[in-house]
Structure formats: structure tokens, C-alpha cells
Amino acid sequence: MYLAIREMRFAKARYTLIATIMLLVAFLVLFVTGLAQGLAYDNAASVKNMSATHFVLEQDSDHRFTRSQVDQTTIEQTGRIVGEKNAEPIGLRMTTVIPSGETQKIDITLLAVNPEGWLAPTVIKGSSNPEQGQVLVDQKLADSGVGIGTVIEDQASGSRWTVSGFVKDESYSHTPAVFLNKKDWLDLQAQSPARQGSELSAVNQEYNAVAIKASEDKVNEITAALPNSEVITKSEAVSAIPGYKEEQGSLMMMIVFLFVISAFVLAVFFYVITIQKTSQFGILKAIGTRTVYLARSVTLQVLVLSVGSLAISVLLVKLFEAILPSSMPFQLSFSTLAMTCLSFILMSLAGSLFSVWKVAKIDALDAIGRTAV
């Protein structure tokens, strides 16, 4: 440790340059990780916020809510198996609305849930129990001029609803969520082209899925009782959201490459420094310094630079997070931050193995001989 610290204090400019590069790479890794997590949450916040363990969908719907339709019979059979309190129907439709008096069109996702059930979102402002003709909207719509009392019109059906309250962090496929009650959802269903002119009865009421809280035994029982349905987990439902896997795959590849690049840059820097110090290492070995001590010295330098760069990078990322606009999805939880920092340190130490290997291969007599020459 003494040798490592003394050398870093002696060659401040050299190690400051390495630390600066590591700081920039660590900042980029943390920022992209936070962006990936933020985009993932923004893409599937409403599904992730649900306390359901599984979802019952129509068979061959590819795990997508928008491709599934479940009728009242399926909802009732599911409720009999898992218990009425553990099964809640969900209606979902992506559409475009226009606030009254405005010309701006806003893409949203309509979500029909029981306002008194366990799928109901937490209201942060306004009425928590909207009546017929009223909706709860995500607070992101406030940036588009939508407020409590604003009337929004569905461009496809012409239905009009009054905003009665705001909810927080509710979105689907990067569009803000608008929560309807059961009556408004059924009225909307009756206006669809396939149902125009017909009256919705209790038997042919349709939703997109049934959210359930159930054990694996109950899931198997549902699968056996409903052969025309499929039961999926919450993570499968999230992964099936259009564009979710592709978006996360691209960002994850960027993060992995950043880790590899940081380890490679660090390995090259320390390997070159080790080659330049071959004579000094040879002399130290000749006077009795053990190879293990020299290897520890190199490793300690990498560890100090990694931890120091990460500490400053975390402060910079937190500063950026505080000043980023609310419309920019960015989320870096403590567990994700800890895992990213630990991975960065491990990759940095892995990059130092080349230098350690070079130190171990240095022959003392050869190094001294070349010095004499």
C-alpha cells in the first residue's frame, strides 16, 4: 500500500489523467443505466404498479393485452378458482384524445379498472372515486394543459370524459394512462364498429385480461379449466409490451459495451505503465520485494482510482438527476446503483490482471542487466 500511494502522489499528472477518463466512463455507464431503467419503467409503469401476480389472457394473443379479449364467462370462472377478491378484469385500449378548446392531439392509453378494487391507482390530486363520465389521468397530461375539469374527447369514438383527478407514474407503452370506470368502458365497447347497433349484456361484456393474485397451484387449475386462455406472469406481460424488449436490448448492449470499454481502457493504461516501470520492478525484486507485494500495489492503484472515480460520478449523476426535466424518464434506484458500481469495480479489477501478469513475469536479473546497459 505504501508503494502504491507514494507512486500515485509522485506521478500526479499521469494518474489524474487516468482517473479523469475513468470518471467520464463511469458517469456514462451510470447515466445510460439510469436512462434504461427510466425508459423501462415509463414503458410499463401501469403494469408494474399492479399488485397482480399473473394475468389471464385469450389464447394465442402473444401475451399482449391489446390482442386479447376475455368474456364475462372467463372472468367469472377465474374468480371462482382464485376467489372473487383476487380477480379483477382489465380493459385496455390505446387511442388519441383532444382536450376541449384545444387542437393538440395526445396519444394515451385507456385503462378500465374497478375504482374500488386493488387495481385502482393512487390519486394524488382530485377525486379518488370518479363517477360515470369522469376519468383519472396521469400527471404528465398536465404539461399538455389538461387540468381537473378539462373535458377530453376520444378521437376514435367521440366519447367525452371530464378529468376528475390526477395519478402519478401511470403509463403504458410511453403514453400516459387514463383510467375509466366499468360503465364508461362498456359504453366505449358498445360504440366499437363490431358492436354498433347491439346492446351489451352481462354475458358478452368483454375486457382484455383478468389480473389475479394466485399461487402456482391455482394457475395450473385455471389453465386446465380454461383451455382457450393462457396465464402469464407480470414479467411476461411487461416484456410483451410493443417495443419493450427491443428498447431494453439496445440500451443493455450499450451498457455492456461501456463496461467492456472501461475495462479495456484501464487495462491498456496500466499495462503501458507497467512496461515503462519494468526496470524499477526488477530492481525491487532484486532487493527482495516479493511479487505478491508488487501485484497488490498495482491492484490497489486500480481499486483506488475506480472507487474515487465512481464516487465523483455518482455525485454528478445525482446532480444531473435533480436538474433533469420531469418529462425525461430517468430512474436509478439504490439497488441498481449499487449493482452498477460493484460491476464497474469488478470489471476494472479484471482489467488490471494483465498488469499483474506482467509484473509476475518480470525477471530481476534481466531487468537489472538492461538497466546497466
UniProtKB/TrEMBL annotation:
Protein's recorded name: Putative hemin transport system permease protein HrtB
Keyword annotations: Cell membrane, Membrane, Transmembrane, Transmembrane helix, Transport
Transmembrane residue ranges: 251-273, 293-317, 337-357
Superkingdom of the source species: Bacteria
Family: Belongs to the ABC-4 integral membrane protein family. HrtB subfamily.
Topological type in the membrane: Multi-pass membrane protein
Quaternary structure and partners: The complex is composed of two ATP-binding proteins (HrtA), two transmembrane proteins (HrtB) and a solute-binding protein.
ABC3 transporter permease C-terminal domain residues: 252-363
